[in-house]
């Protein structure tokens, strides 16, 4: 009996090893030949067809970039005051999409982007760190729903993932694996980056492939520089080995997620520029956006949030430290833009830029609400007055945004950098959480630069790039029969500014805050932490005339609200949105569909 069990165990282990190998391999079945009628053939025959898939002749390279925690009004390319000349140049020679949407949270946005499916549909309803046993939330992205990298690799592309991944289940991020849900198991030939939601910019925890990739921290090199260096190296190696083979680079810097860290020269570049304060910043940027044609001329700013103090009421010390924090934030984005520019310049220098699609998504969600109160204040001052804390922070002002800084900008600045929208990251009900800028540069496909206002979502990127690359979507990948995507290609809009929207219906949900968009109308419900989602109040907005959700029409059009709420329920069930849960878990981990009250515990700091 023992020997029989041992045999079964050995075969089971062998099967697991074989399955792991299959999952990470390209689909390459045994070739079938017609029987040669000749018994003997003294003339050699050429090997006509390779096992490896070949990309269509002239297939474009693809560079897909997504930044982290960047508000709609931060980058100069979209009216912000943080200089992004590389983004501006790409936009000047390409397209600006002003009606582009994310999921409102980082891991869900990345899952939706890479798979072309809604985030709950691929089991990524929330963070990988908060996963639980429900089909929309267990963080195990199905192999039946292939990533863009898996599709392009099956069509003859080399594929590289560089930067933040955040899609591997927590218990599988270790050096012992399993590795089938690492980037190299989901279609990427090469991976250089980190698994978590964030890492230090000067002391990062990095992996290359499935191996730890320690760096020499004594060099003082910034993570963005490492990522740019590695991207260039991967492309250079590939083009040297196979000049005509296209590549797909998925580049995801940790910027601008906390910790906010960058070299001093980038911070000093903005010295004094934000002394105007966050109230004035919103006014200045909105005027710039209106002049650039990025938002409707009638757009008005929402009121300053109740948790944010008027800039003029801050003390002199607090104004100095908070302005310095925004200088660091802007410097961080400018440095990110610069390093991305090095990659674009390299692609241009090797003569590949005209045959490259560069897509820049400026933020995986809106600016964060998980921010500093008074940046730079020392620990242990909770009982001190606000002025004492500000003065203590002022003594540390030179450390704000530097190597050992662990914080972020204050809430006043994140609202300002989200202008003209309401609320923040994780607020899936509001445009401030889900409305991000997107730049599309593709000389081969875009005839004339301009602005596009079509409604586009992250899930539309996958089908668009598949269409433009003329890739064939296999019915089965690595033995997994493929299921339909949710996205709709926006290639129709590239050369037609007036084209009618094709993506007309989209749901949103994270942390029980939710929304339903259809044909220009949007119903939404903000969920207050610690209350029952059944008590959430639904609002209604006409996005065709109310770009930034300023007039709630719920009472005026109750039938329309009821229609959209019913549609949300139908869509939520189809996408495994239930059970709803909050953005943090108390120790008891109460996960009820209804009446999920957390009155006895407070969320962690």
TrEMBL record:
<dbReference type="InterPro" id="IPR017850">
    <property type="entry name" value="Alkaline_phosphatase_core_sf"/>
</dbReference>
<protein>
    <submittedName>
        <fullName>Arylsulfatase</fullName>
        <ecNumber>3.1.6.-</ecNumber>
    </submittedName>
</protein>
<feature type="signal peptide">
    <location>
        <begin position="1"/>
        <end position="25"/>
    </location>
</feature>
<dbReference type="InterPro" id="IPR024607">
    <property type="entry name" value="Sulfatase_CS"/>
</dbReference>
<keyword id="KW-0106">Calcium</keyword>
<dbReference type="GO" id="GO:0016787">
    <property type="term" value="F:hydrolase activity"/>
</dbReference>
<keyword id="KW-0378">Hydrolase</keyword>
<comment type="similarity">
    <text>Belongs to the sulfatase family.</text>
</comment>
<dbReference type="InterPro" id="IPR000917">
    <property type="entry name" value="Sulfatase_N"/>
</dbReference>
<dbReference type="Pfam" id="PF00884">
    <property type="entry name" value="Sulfatase"/>
</dbReference>
<feature type="domain" description="Sulfatase N-terminal">
    <location>
        <begin position="60"/>
        <end position="468"/>
    </location>
</feature>
<keyword id="KW-0479">Metal-binding</keyword>
<dbReference type="InterPro" id="IPR050738">
    <property type="entry name" value="Sulfatase"/>
</dbReference>
<keyword id="KW-0732">Signal</keyword>
């Amino acid at each position: 009996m023992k020997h029989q069990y041992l045999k079964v165990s050995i075969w089971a282990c062998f099967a697991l090893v074989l399955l792991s190998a299959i999952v990470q391999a390209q689909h390459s079945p045994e070739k079938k030949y017609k029987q040669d009628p000749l018994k003997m053939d003294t003339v050699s025959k050429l090997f006509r067809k390779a096992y490896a898939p070949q990309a269509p002749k002239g297939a474009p390279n693809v560079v897909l970039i997504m930044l982290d925690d960047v508000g709609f009004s931060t980058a100069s390319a979209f009216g912000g005051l943080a200089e992004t000349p590389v983004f501006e140049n790409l936009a000047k020679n390409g397209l600006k999409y002003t009606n582009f949407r994310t999921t409102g949270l980082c891991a869900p946005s990345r899952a939706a982007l890479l798979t072309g499916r809604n985030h709950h549909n691929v089991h990524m309803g929330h963070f990988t760190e908060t996963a639980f046993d429900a089909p929309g939330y267990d963080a195990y992205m199905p192999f039946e729903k292939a990533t863009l990298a898996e599709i392009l690799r099956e069509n003859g592309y080399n594929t590289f993932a560089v930067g933040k991944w955040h899609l591997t289940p927590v218990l599988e991020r270790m050096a012992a694996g399993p590795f089938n849900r690492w980037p190299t198991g989901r279609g990427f030939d090469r991976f250089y980056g980190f698994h978590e939601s964030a890492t230090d910019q000067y002391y990062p925890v990095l992996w290359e492939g499935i191996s730890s990739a320690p760096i020499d921290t004594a060099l003082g090199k910034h993570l963005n520089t490492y990522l740019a260096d590695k991207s260039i190296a991967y492309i250079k190696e590939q083009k040297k080995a196979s000049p005509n083979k296209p590549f797909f680079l998925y580049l995801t810097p940790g910027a601008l997620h906390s910790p906010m860290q960058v070299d001093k020269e980038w911070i000093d570049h903005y010295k004094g520029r934000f002394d105007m304060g966050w109230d004035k910043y919103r006014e200045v940027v909105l005027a710039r956006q209106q002049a650039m044609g990025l938002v409707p001329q009638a757009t008005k700013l929402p009121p300053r949030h109740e948790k944010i103090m008027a800039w003029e009421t801050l003390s002199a010390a607090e104004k100095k430290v908070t302005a310095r924090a925004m200088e660091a934030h802007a410097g961080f984005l400018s440095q990110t833009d610069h390093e991305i520019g090095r990659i674009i310049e390299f692609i241009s220098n090797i003569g590949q830029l005209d045959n490259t699609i560069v897509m820049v998504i400026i933020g995986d969600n809106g600016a964060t609400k998980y921010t500093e109160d008074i940046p730079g204040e020392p620990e242990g001052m909770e009982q001190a007055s606000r002025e004492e804390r500000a003065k203590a922070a002022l003594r540390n002002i030179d450390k704000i945004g530097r190597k050992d800084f662990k914080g972020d900008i204050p809430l006043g600045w994140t609202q300002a950098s989200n202008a003209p929208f309401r609320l923040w990251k994780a607020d899936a009900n509001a445009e401030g959480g889900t409305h991000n800028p997107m730049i599309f540069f593709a000389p081969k496909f875009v005839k004339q630069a301009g602005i596009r206002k079509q409604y586009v979502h992250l899930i539309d990127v996958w089908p668009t790039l598949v269409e433009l690359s003329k890739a064939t979507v296999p019915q089965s990948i690595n033995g997994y029969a493929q299921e339909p995507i949710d996205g709709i290609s926006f290639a129709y809009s590239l050369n037609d500014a007036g084209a009618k929207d094709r993506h007309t219906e989209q749901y949103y949900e994270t942390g029980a805050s939710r929304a339903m968009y259809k044909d220009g109308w949007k119903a939404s419900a903000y969920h207050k932490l610690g209350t029952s989602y059944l008590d959430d109040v639904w609002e209604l907005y006409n996005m065709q005339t109310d770009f930034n959700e300023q007039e709630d029409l719920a009472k005026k059009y109750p039938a329309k609200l009821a229609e959209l709420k019913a549609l949300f329920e139908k869509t939520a069930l189809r996408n495994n949105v239930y059970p709803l849960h909050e953005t943090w878990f108390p120790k008891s981990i109460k996960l009820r569909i209804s009446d999920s009250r957390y009155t006895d515990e407070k969320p962690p700091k």
